[in-house]
Each structure stands twice: as C-alpha cells, then as structure tokens.
Amino acid sequence: MILNTNIWQQTIEAAKAASATSPAWLRAIERAVIEIERAPYWSFADGVLVITSTTSKKTYRIDEAHTCPACENGHQACKHRASRRLIQRYTERLQAAPKSDAFAECERAPLARREGNAVMIDGWAV
Question: Where in the chain are the domains?
C-alpha cells in the first residue's frame, strides 16, 4: 500500500512524542515503522491490522486484544501493537486531511500526448 508521506511522518512523530518517556514503546514504534514500510502485504479494516512480517514471514492478525511472545510477562509494547496503533492513527489523520480538488490538479498538470517516439509535453517533444 502506498502511504501519504506527509501524513505518515506526522503520525510517526506524534507517536514518538507521546511515547517519549517509554523506551520500550519507542523501540516498538521504530520496529513497527520498518515492518509497515517493508511488509510485502498489510491491510487495515474494522480496527484489525493484517500484516505479513518481514522477519518471520508469518501473517499476523492484530486486533485490540493481540498477544504474542513479546507481550508475555506483562510487557505491553510490541511491534505488532505499535503497528496497529500507527496505522489506526494514520488512517484517522488521512480521513481528516482536506481532499484536493482533482479538477484543479488536472488543470495545472502539463498536457502530455504521444507523438511517434517522442512525448509531447505542453507543445515540446521530449
């Protein structure tokens, strides 16, 4: 999935700021960012993140009640939970972001058409 870079970075920064006093959560966030950006597959629907791990190649279904070996012994911070929270916050930010006017974008875009082996862009053969 392609992420909106600006909103994704804002989400990461906000998560790190909120977790500044917790080294365990900061590590989990760093690992989660790597997993999300490099995962061969992930999806998020109805509060559930499904992601294929880059390390184990296992597919995880992460909901609010997620548990894994990293969560044992009372630890709450794991890359899976951090991944779910990051994607949840990212989705919220993405939905709240103002939508661009697609027609205005098309009007500002250069006119491109194919001419033989060249492409014409605003009347210039490239």
Answer: 5-125
